[in-house]
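#struct-help
A.M.: can someone run this one for me? Single chain, 281 residues.
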Amino acid sequence: MNSRPKLGQNFLIDAQAVERVAAALGDLKGRTVVEIGPGRGAITGVLAARASHVVAVEFDRELASRLREQFPSARVTVVQQDVLDFDFSAVDKGLSSAPAGKLCVAGNLPYYITSPILLKLAASHAALDLAVLMVQREVADRIVAQPGSRDYGLLSVTVQMYGPVERLFTLSPRAFSPPPEVHSTVFRWRFAPRFDELGVMEDTFLRFVRSAFAQKRKTLANNLRAAGFDTKAATAALTAADVSPQARAETLPLETFAALWRFLQAVDPGLSTQTGTSSAR
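D.P.: on it. Structure tokens below:
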């Protein structure tokens, strides 16, 4: 049998790590879990034993076929699809019984599309409860980073606006086959968007944040001017939020970003359409 990995896959083989991932999801009785990239099914089997149903989304056609042979359809539904095209809101339509509450998500995310998957989950937040995800350690550092740290940036703010994140544990390359060249970290993400709480609009606020982080070496004031914000309005907003004109975006917590945006919106709501549209990275 050809076991050569495709698409840069590194399969989890550490049994203890598998148990820890499943345990981090909490009590799964009556719950439906969507597993991203199940691969050879190491985590799938443990999830199927604990949850009401597992929907395994696998892009690789050969692996998806093997998973269907390996697990009974009554417990595991295998979907051969790119997770970026998967509709989390429609999961209950394909099951014999509706999920109890929102969905749980688990997955060993492919390194090369980690950010797009995180953005996909954020966009699907209305259908999700929590996710336990495995990513490259350096990416996890950015996801859980706090203001003022070197890893804090656009990805940190974007993910954390959709709910709290916490680092759980880190795995060495030996936990995988074949071993990757990097360590991997498992983190938990609880979906509880903060947009209403902070008084900001989702789309326009995230565009504003992308503009704030557009040039890492520039001050926040310079990035705002480059994004089309009036200099006087930007300066007044910084003063109102008690932010130094020389401050950089990586020093600001979510609450301060929200305060800045509320002030700028009040001065000129039309400015929201001028902010950048580059993706989180």
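A.M.: thanks! DSSP finds eleven helices and nine strands in the chain.
D.P.: also worth noting: The chain has two domains: 11-193, 197-274.
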